[in-house]
Amino acid sequence: MAQQRFHLFKSFRTLSLKLTLLTVVCTLAQIPQVLTAQGIPTLWEAKEYLPPSGIGAPDHRTGAGTRTPRQSCRVTGKPLTALLPSNNFGVTENTHPQFFVYVPAVSLENESIPVEFLLESQDGEDIYQTRFNSNGTAGILAISLPNHEGVSPLKVNSNYKWSFSVICDPDERSMDIAVEGWVRRVKLNSMLNHQLRQLSLSKRVELYAEAEIWHDALASLAQLRLENPDNLEVAAEWSKLLSAVGLEEFSQESIIRVSPKSTLELTSSSQRDNESNDATD
């Protein structure tokens, strides 16, 4: 009888152990993959999202201008540069993403510096345009695509061209110093989308980077830098992300948010159409 109770106890312990192991396995299976993610890569290879052929030369990430006696723009230090991977192409999941460009110290005789941001569809249709004055101070501008009725959201799997110009002579736009890049909005799979909505901002940076979502990884990390200017860990992550695309020389530059309220001109294709109709009525 005692031997039967011993075997029964032994069987019960074995069953309990199996149930415990099964519970642990099930729990681990529910942990978001980001907990085992590699985080920000040391090299941004962009294996998943490739730019379409024929979108323009990749060397337009760095700005250049034609210098003539009429052009009085004087650029000091590093050149005007779009913060993008070397192929000049990045993706976003956001309907109204942010765009980042390093603007060097620029001086113009007796004037502030007019600059312009333009977003176009792949077919050349204007989506959004804004122009405002820069004080000539060097820094990284964070330009947000406004989320209001006048600006159409980016369409999934559509490519858009954006450009940023320093206007040296408003009467001769060929004298602009300009950079350009391309962006595509992508749709996340349901698991990745769920993870991103549950995680802290710092963890979202890692997951965006691993998923090769450039614009959102950069924007999330820029937000962390602005909110935690003295955090050495955030600064190191920012430097690592820029270094992954060969832009480590800009890691110490300040980030400047551009508010639509500070712009001199805020237009989209639909707004311009309405203004044109009003003028003809």
Q: What is this structure's SSE topology?
A:
Elements: H1 2-29, E1 74-76, E2 81-82, E3 89-92, E4 98-103, E5 105-107, E6 113-121, E7 126-134, E8 139-144, E9 159-166, E10 177-185, H2 190-198, H3 201-210, H4 214-227, H5 232-243, E11 255-258, E12 265-267, H6 269-280
Parallel strand pairs: 3-10, 8-11
Antiparallel strand pairs: 1-5, 2-4, 4-8, 6-7, 6-9, 7-12, 9-10
Helix pairs in contact: 3-4, 4-5
Features:
281 residues, alpha+beta, Immunoglobulin-like, six-stranded mixed beta sheet, four-stranded mixed beta sheet, disordered C terminus
pLDDT average, as an integer? 78
Task: Assign the structural class, choosing from mainly alpha, mainly beta, alpha/beta, alpha+beta, or little secondary structure.
Answer: alpha+beta
Number of domains: 1
Q: Name the CATH superfamily assignment.
A: Macroglobulin (MG2) domain
Instruction: Based on the coordinates given, report the CATH architecture.
Output: Sandwich
Shape: globular
Give the class-level CATH name.
Mainly Beta
- Count of helix runs: 6
Described by strand count, sense and barrel closure, the largest sheet is: 6 strands, mixed
Strand order of the largest sheet: 3-10-9-6-7-12
Give the CA-CA distance, first to last residue.
Answer: 104 Å
Strands, total number: 12
Portion of residues in beta strands equals 15-25%
**N to C succession of SSEs:** HEEEEEEEEEEHHHHEEH
Instruction: Determine the CATH topology.
Output: Immunoglobulin-like
What Rg is obtained from the alpha carbons, in whole angstroms? 25 Å
Low-confidence stretches: 4-12, 17-37, 65-71, 262-281
| Helical residues, percent | 25-40%
